[in-house]
TrEMBL record:
Species classification: Bacteria, Pseudomonadati, Pseudomonadota, Gammaproteobacteria, Pseudomonadales
Binding site for L-histidine: D83, M84, T85, Q126, E130, R272
The gene coding this protein: hisZ
Example GO molecular function: glycosyltransferase activity
UniProt keyword list: Amino-acid biosynthesis, Cytoplasm, Glycosyltransferase, Histidine biosynthesis, Transferase
Residue intervals passing through the bilayer: none
Pfam families: tRNA-synt_His
Quaternary context: Heteromultimer composed of HisG and HisZ subunits.
Protein name in UniProt: ATP phosphoribosyltransferase regulatory subunit
Length: 393
């Protein structure tokens, strides 16, 4: 390795420098403070775990996104977390084991083997909330409402919310009884919304069959009219599908009532990223940005793999992405410059100021330095035997 290569970082991995690092940290704190004001308790899961724990209840996509390594103490395979939601589910089911409702929030780096798309890196800063112990629509609405509140805190000007229900796809694909390879091919085509591929895969299915309904649903997305069209396609299919559509309708009505400024729609083939979800799912978008800025939904199955089945719903977002998309202004107070003077009175003045202010103490090498280049807008000067703060101007 040459000297010039030693500072290179892997593709998709970056240093976060001032002032961006300060903006990211400020938003992380505000998001976590918002979640805690809603009653969500902060947890800090470990960066690495055994693979069996990380992959419990999750899908194949998450396994492909996870870096794997061997534990030198036990010889077992470990993984660097690619998603913190399964960790929160483990904490609820096994570590905490509380009865009743549990609300948890978290924030930290995750690591992906490859970027999810061209707009992201491989080390997003994930933040999110998870609500365990309630299968009610009130719980779903609380999580969606909190997600929208965090996006407001991030300064996103306009938000569009897409609603879907994973159980619709799962019910139809189960009824169709395809072999496993065909199911995976259909799922992949659905996730990419490749209508031509679905026509080729499902075009021979009889009218009214589950396969035919899936093919038609792939073309349905949009506002309230999409829900009407989906009802026509799924009419007479099953009571469980009717229940899923009814739930989407009720949630949409509540959103219209509580968040009139947020536009919303339905996408019945939205499967990307919902590796372990089982019911209502949702994703938030902003104009001009192709990927979702936050997403989540219901995942009632994960806890059973940890020995404690619990209904659960939650959401997650990428703090780094929100900082680049939001119109949030971070108020930054300037610092106070203290000279390199050994006066004991100056030591006391600096100590008192640092209780509420940022104070940068000059070092011998700072002689002749302009304090403004160090972010200072004031300085400590000695007047009449006392150290006082005055403007640099």
């Amino acid at each position: 390795m040459t000297v010039s290569d030693r500072w290179l970082l892997p593709d998709g991995v970056e240093d976060i420098l001032p002032p961006l690092a300060g903006r990211i940290e400020s938003l992380r704190r505000d998001v976590m403070d918002t979640c805690q004001r809603w009653g969500y308790q902060l947890v800090i899961p470990p960066l690495i775990e055994y693979l069996e724990s990380l992959f419990t209840g999750t899908g194949h996509d998450l396994e492909l996104q996870t870096f794997k390594l061997t534990d030198q103490l036990t010889g077992r395979m470990m993984g660097v977390r690619a998603d913190m939601t399964p960790q929160a589910a483990r904490i609820d089911a096994h570590t905490l084991g509380q009865e009743g409702i549990t609300r948890l929030c978290y924030a930290g780096h995750v690591l992906h083997t490859r970027p999810r798309h061209m707009l992201t890196g491989r080390t997003p800063i994930q933040a999110g909330c998870e609500l365990f112990g309630s299968a009610s629509e009130s719980a779903d609405m609380e999580v969606i409402s909190l997600m929208l509140e965090t996006l407001r805190v991030a300064g996103l000007p306009r938000i569009h919310l897409d609603l879907a229900h994973v159980a619709i796809y799962e019910s139809l694909i189960g009824e169709a009884d395809f072999d496993r390879d065909t199911e995976e091919t259909i799922f992949d085509a659905m996730a990419r919304k490749s209508v031509p591929e679905l026509d080729e895969l499902l075009g021979d299915c009889p009218e009214g069959s589950a396969g035919s309904r899936l093919r038609k649903l792939a073309r349905v997305s949009g506002g309230p009219e999409a829900l009407v069209e989906a009802r026509k396609i799924l009419s007479g299919a099953s009571e469980s599908l009717d229940a899923a559509l009814d739930k989407l309708d009720r949630v949409a009505n509540m959103l219209t009532r509580d968040f009139p400024e947020v536009s919303f729609g339905f996408d019945f083939c939205e499967l990307r990223g919902y590796n372990y979800h089982t019911g209502l799912v949702f994703a938030a978008y902003v104009p001009g940005h192709g990927d979702s800025v936050a997403k989540g939904g219901r995942y009632d199955a994960i806890g059973s793999d940890f020995g404690r089945p619990r209904p659960a719903t939650g959401f997650s977002l990428d703090i780094r992405a929100l900082v680049s998309l939001g119109e949030r202004t971070v108020k930054k107070n300037g610092a106070v410059w203290a000279p390199a003077d050994q006066d004991p009175a100056l030591e006391g003045a600096v100590s008192d100021l640092r209780k509420t202010e940022t104070v940068i103490r000059a070092l011998p090498e700072d002689e002749g330095c302009n304090p403004a280049t160090r972010g200072c807008d004031r300085q400590l000067v000695k007047k009449d035997g006392e150290w006082v703060v005055q403007s640099l101007d």
